[in-house]
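Narrative of accomplishments. A recurring question from our advisory board has been how the design workflow behaves on a single, concrete structure rather than in aggregate. To address it, we present the structure tokens for one chain from the evaluation set, followed by the sequence designed for it. No filtering or post-editing was applied between the two.
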């Protein structure tokens, strides 16, 4: 019984409001669609609830981009005179220089951590489904300032991305290894 009274109390204002919106009640002229809300009616049929000044519709603004600053060259320790080559890091952790050859890519990078390295040339054609496995080539660090290796057996004129990894670069306290990897842009053997 109590719920029925509550329903009647809610339905009465909604019903009267709907009648007024249809022009069937209120103080306006029947059929004109004016409501009984306080305030003057403007020329366009809008009800002014509060006085003030109209604001224009917002227009989208397109910000101007700022050019990305060039990254400074970096050099790696030790800085012996014979190792004073400047390397640009963007955005890889191991910077690489890649020289295309006939069906090959020669890759050079700075030696660090006395680590061993592994490298792969990953073909870039679109392949649906499972990606084919790519072979990693193990490369010893050597003793010089830089490490150099040549990846052979590649298809001339086809796109590749070179991945470089230093699995022996040490580990954090929690056991996860230091990330010391590199990735080239797309390169094409000649």
């Amino acid at each position: 019984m109590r719920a029925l009274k509550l329903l009647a109390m809610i339905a009465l204002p909604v019903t009267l409001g709907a009648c007024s919106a249809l022009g069937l009640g209120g103080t306006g002229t029947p059929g004109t669609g004016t409501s009984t809300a306080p305030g003057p009616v403007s020329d366009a049929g809008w009800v002014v609830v509060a006085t003030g000044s109209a604001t224009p519709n917002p227009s989208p603004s397109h910000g101007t981009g700022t050019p990305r600053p060039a990254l400074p060259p970096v050099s790696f320790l030790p800085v012996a005179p014979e190792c004073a080559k400047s390397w640009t890091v963007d955005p890889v952790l191991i910077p690489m220089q890649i020289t295309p050859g006939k069906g090959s890519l020669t890759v050079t990078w700075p030696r660090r951590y006395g680590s061993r390295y592994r490298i792969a040339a990953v073909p870039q054609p679109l392949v649906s489904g499972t990606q084919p496995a790519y072979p990693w080539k193990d490369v010893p660090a050597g003793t010089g300032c830089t490490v150099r290796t040549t990846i052979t057996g590649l298809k001339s004129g086809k796109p590749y991305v070179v991945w470089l990894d230093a699995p022996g670069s040490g580990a954090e306290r929690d056991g996860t290894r230091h990330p010391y990897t590199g990735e080239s842009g797309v390169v094409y053997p000649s």
